[in-house]
Amino acid sequence: LSKENGKNSFSFYNAELDKVMMRKLQIENDLKTAISNEQLSLVYQPKVDLQSKKVVGMEALLRWNHPQLGWISPLEFIPIAEETRQIIPIGEWVLNEACRQNKQWQEQGYPPLCVSVNVSVLQFQHGEFLETVQKALQTSQLDAQFLELEITESMMQDIKESRDILDSLMKEGVKTSIDDFGTGYSSLSILPNLPIDTIKIDKSFMDELEKTGQYSIVKTIIDLSQNLNLKVVAEGIETESQRQILRENGCLVGQGYLFYKPVAPNDFESILKEAALKGDQDEIPLLGDF
Ligand code: C2E
Ligand code: MG
Ligand code: MG
Ligand code: MG
Fold first, then answer.
1. Whose CA is nearest to atom 42 of ligand 1?
2. DSSP codes, 9-58
3. Can you tell me the distance from the alpha carbon of 125 to that of 82, in angstroms, rounded to the nearest whole number?
4. What is the pLDDT of residue 134?
5. In degrees rounded to 5, what are phi and psi of residue 89?
6. Residues of the chain with confidence (pLDDT) below 50
7. Is this complex's ipTM strictly greater than 0.90?
8. Residues with Cβ < 8 Å from 18, sequence gap 6 or more?
9. Bridge-partner residues for 29, per DSSP?
10. CB atoms near residue 38 (< 10 Å)
């Protein structure tokens, strides 16, 4: 820092840093009581069939309504929850709530769908993860086939341990997918041996689907999933051309603002009702009274 601008820019920088630090400290501290104060909730983003646009599943996404700070993005508070290991109880809350809600929808007569829940690496590696999943299923009475766990690629670092956990989950009947595929640093060679069901193409790769004929990464991931007998789901679909190219290249399922944003449980119910009224009953059996 030069003498002339040194003092002022330094104190300005300090003030900004203070603000950032204070916010982080507050988030860190208030997260401890977010569950007991009932500030956490889940929203659901429909997954759709890219041909018929019918809802075939949903992803549960965590929301935190802070009394002073308002809605805080999971992109901001989940890394902090991971640092403080608060993610363990929070992740458990998410699992329980997603299973409970999904079971409730089934009991209300909505078509049974699979709910996908995001799982943090810390949760996944926590010694009691399997028990937590089993407990959530038991308490909610949700059939394991209607639960999917989305795990990011970075979790596959400790490959031996990860495989053991994934094996147990598979035996349990729970589905698993690799989230944000292509953004991590894992070696492709680990994939063939991992007991997973689905690869999710990260939304950052949707951009290339706008340039005609230049979708090499997405095409490669779809081909890879087909060669490995895995399902493939695209996230972050915002345009009709993205939907079309994905579909033409063999990706059957996706999610994104083109179809639906993540919505509160009530609105998700409305989406399901609307789909039923549009005459989807033929393909979705088990529709009862709403
Ligand atoms: P993710 O699991 O990859 O979820 C997809 C994110 O993309 C969501 O952001 C979703 O709202 C957003 N999205 C969906 N469609 C579109 C689209 O068409 N365009 C764009 N630009 N974005 C779209 P959200 O809800 O803010 O969540 C961000 C991330 O936070 C998630 O990424 C996930 O990694 C993490 N997260 C959310 N809920 C949980 C949770 O319960 N547990 C854990 N461990 N992580 C969570
Ligand atoms: Mg996800
Ligand atoms: Mg994702
Ligand atoms: Mg993502």
1. 118
2. HHHHHHHHHHHHHHHHHHHHHHHHHHTTTT-EEEEEEEEEETTT--EEEE
3. 12
4. 98
5. -65, -35
6. 1-2, 281-282, 284-290
7. yes
8. none
9. none
10. 9
**Residue indicated by tokens 């965590």:** 62
Strand, coil or helix: what is 191?
helix
246 CB less than 6 Å from ligand 1?
Answer: no
75 lines ligand 1 (CB under 6 A): yes
Say how many Å lie between the CA of residue 179 and the centre of ligand 4. Answer: 7
| 238 Cβ contact partners less than 8 Å away, ≥ 6 residues apart | 206, 256, 257, 258
Whether 86 lines ligand 1, by a CB cut-off of 6 Å, is no
Contact 55, 33 (CB under 8 A): no
Give the model confidence (pLDDT) of 59-73 as tens digits: 999 999 999 999 999
User: What count of Cα atoms within 13 Å lies in the side-chain half-sphere of residue 222?
Assistant: 20
162 Cβ inside 6 Å of ligand 1: no
Q: What is the amino acid identity at position 157?
A: Q
Report how far Cα 227 is from the mean position of its chain's Cα atoms. 24
